[in-house]
Design brief:
The protein has 13 helices and 17 strands. By secondary structure, the protein is α/β, with parallel strands linked by helices. The strands form 4 sheets. Strands 1, 2, 3, 4, 9, 10 and 11 form a 7-stranded mixed sheet that branches. The chain has a 6-stranded mixed sheet with strand order 14-15-13-12-16-17, sandwiched between helices. Helix 8 crosses helix 13 and helix 11 crosses helix 12.
Amino acid sequence: MGLYLGIDFGTSGARAIAIDDAGKIQAEAQSHFLNAKALTLLWRNALLALLEQLPGNIRSQIDAIAIDGTSSTVLLCDRAGNPMDKPLLYNDARGIAVKAQLQEIAPPQNVVQSATSSLAKLLWWQNQGKTTQAHYLLHQADWLGFLLHGQLGISDYHNALKLGYDVHNLTYPDWLRSLPSFSLLPQVYAPGSPVSPLKPDLVRRFGFPDTCQVCTGTTDSIAAFNASGATQPGEAVTSLGSTLVIKLLSQTPVDNSRYGIYSHRFGDLWLTGGASNTGGAVLRHFFSDEMLDSISQEIDPDVESPLEYYPLLSKGDRFPVNDPELAPQLDPRPDDSVQFLHGLLESIARIEAQGYQLLQDFGATPLTQVYTAGGGAKNPTWVKIRQRQLRVPVAISRHAAAAYGTALLARRSRQNP
């Protein structure tokens, strides 16, 4: 019996899940970190900590490993893979400074037109003179994968979408090849493609089989979709973590940069959706987890809150309103915490519903079912509020952890080589 390891890196921590051939979880590990100047060091330490936490008898049976990371979190590396500058995170909107360049270079509705796209960040680095000494632009999952397999310049077409990779034709488009920094871009493979065996030093240190393969990864939201159990067109997954991410399985792709909508290739189908900066991070700014649990129980989810917020921690959103200057709307704030939380939960649910409606307005397969992953999936009051707003059944994902979905990706690499 082989085992398969999925590793998920989010904004504040990482998680590993090992599954067997039947999909049963055999082991789990977690590591938390805070954003800091030495973020890549924290990532490296968290990755090693996850491997260390796994029981030795589990490590010795791992056949394949895959890693997911936050979409559009990127870093520049030197010839040896050492980071040359601090990473630019998924929600870093400094790319607004290169908006005119993007409009000149890329097609008008391409996903790279967003101020937070990977390509926007590359152009910003290029304009700062940061790319002249660099050898690689890597996504978070690419770099973490490199730490395991030692091969530089390797990515997957889920992470590479926001870099401008053409997922319809599976190639870099001509307009991208003409960029001065094109040589920094990674080679792109299908998610879950075997790259190389685990590095010998890690095999010796942790007792993995020397045949253990490290695979190309995916993004955290697609990993969550993999874990959900959704398989049919019209089924969707909402990831309610620090941010709000929606993915609708559609027979047709939808791409509209004006609204922050983009589509990932997903076998013969398409995952169309977008990511908003609203979500759990806003809730935790005002309430502890214990308060969220207790106060939510005092809310009647069948009654719509009259408060209409746009909950953000700072200005700017990506979807369904793609506006880096969008101001947070959190007024009026009632003295009653129950009313305030009700207004926040209701407003985030409205944004979610607006997002799914936009996808359908632009031609995606009609929504029939929503699965929920992330911390917000555990709040039954919020589930009922969202179901009222969405007008379709809302269920908790079969497996809520993105790491489980990435473990499935690793398993697929060995079952379908």
